[in-house]
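Can't paste images in this forum, so I'm doing it all in text. The chain is below; anyone willing to post the predicted structure tokens underneath?
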Amino acid sequence: MTRRPLGRAALAAAVLMLAFPAIPATAQSPEHRAENDIPGIDIIVRKKPGGVAMPAGTSGRNGRFSVRVRVERGEYEVTTACRPRTPCPRHRLDELMVDNRRILPDAEGRFSFPIPPPEDSDSVRLSGRVRVWQLMQGDQGPR
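Text version of the structure:
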């Protein structure tokens, strides 16, 4: 039996596989799959403490939303809610941006952001994504 040397294409493919890392595990993990995105979830903004909950928008087909919201000086919280009398899967606000600035959840998983004085604009752009809630290792529950 004789050994045939690798062709140029096979050799190039082998080198590329070794030179570039594989797709990150997060891109393959279940919580990052498109079927976990939820459309039709209302995005709620409320001034803290004790402000009135204002529906700001609704998540789109891919679970994403982007909406401009009128605000005044103070602290605000963004949450989600299902429409009345509609089936609603367990879900969570997975990411939030305020005027292109990423907001991280607090220890309880709540998303809050301040509007400091003086603020030039009386509105902010909220964008983010709503996803199916799945219990992952180390997860504390829906947010």
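The first strand starts at residue 42 and ends at 48. DSSP finds two helices and eight strands in the chain.
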